[in-house]
């Protein structure tokens, strides 16, 4: 009977976003892939049965990643040796063809159940994998956020089950067809965000036998698992400074988990040794990028912040204003998620600049009426905006929005001090990612907007504009000044 009781440890990370190098806080070195690898190696040596899983978004956020278009990240991940990883929305940033090339370079399984070729409904990746450890068989199924469609709008042959009900059904299909008497546990390795993990768990049929959900995408730091329909949901924040750890006991004879314990472990010099092989590999990439990326571009007046995507921020105002300066459009809607650092400055090196806005996008211009602008603002301020379920925008100078959440009403909408009237015409600058998803992101059909003016490309590189402006203007500053005021 005792032989049927098995111990298992599952380590998990998500949303690295190129967070490869350690940082020092209050004299203590925290994070970095070398220490993360050291912790994973230590647990593998100390524990009986260990699985390491990565829940998406390994790419973007670091010049080490962008300089080599993800190939360096795959090299580092191969050294980290996860047992399984799923695809995040940023894995497609360099294009789907490039992702398929990178998959060929991986030495670990990359799974996803709900990306498919639209012509024949065939899956692009292996939907699941069985990991055998200590006489146990653990099935991992990969599920991706609907945002992948936003990144691949130009690739019409790529589709995904963007609906949670459809994703849940896909889980059921896999469990019904591939879960066998040899399967001890089933784990969903998702990249759909905490809120959607909860909704997905509510949709799962208990007979499918899903035992837990390990998630990513929303960068959620948790103090304890969320239990939905008896299914624990966990996520380990973001970056390399933390790692999730599940320690459980499983009764193979009874087919159930006896004990489930989860913690989020800080990665620092007190908890994790450095893995020298990983440290040397990172140093080799850093040496090659430092010459190009360590030059100083500008010096701001002070450190500026971007603490949350769902509010007006200092950096958000600065970047929106930079993009509207001497532009052919009136208003810049700069995607809040395009700004990746929570604080920056006052000295800005080229590396800082590129890592802060890693998605170097084309800029489009559209023209909207005042009535359409009001509809767009109403859509942007919907309830989903406050829980990270939709895009939020930083607005350029001259825009004033006062919105009351409790009544879902716009109490003030003005431009350059004048109320926005229905017949007013406004030209708006948008990054290509947002332009290509206009209908979904702004709640107004692009075909309607095209009747005002044919949209056109007005700049081929946002970062060229940002770098030139930073270089030519020293001592830049910005404050939160009430461009977007949200009343409770």
Task: Please explain how this structure is put together.
This protein is an alpha/beta fold. It is 29% helix and 30% strand. The strands form eight sheets. Strands 6-5-4-1-16-17 form a six-stranded mixed sheet, with helices on one face. A six-stranded mixed sheet has the order 9-10-12-13-15-14, with helices on one face. It is globular, with a radius of gyration of 24 Å.
Number of strands: 30
Radius of gyration equals 24 Å
Helix content: 25-40%
Which of globular, elongated, flat, extended, rod-shaped describes the shape? globular
Q: Please, what is the CATH homologous superfamily of the largest domain? A: Metallo-dependent phosphatases
The name of the CATH architecture of the largest domain is 4-Layer Sandwich
Q: What is the name of the CATH topology of the largest domain?
A: Purple Acid Phosphatase, chain A, domain 2
| Strand portion | 25-35%
Q: How would you sum up the major sheet?
A: 6 strands, mixed
- Weakly predicted, low-confidence segments: none
Strand arrangement, largest sheet?
6-5-4-1-16-17
The helix tally amounts to: 15
CATH class designation of the largest domain: Alpha Beta
Mean of residue pLDDT? 91
Domain module count: 2
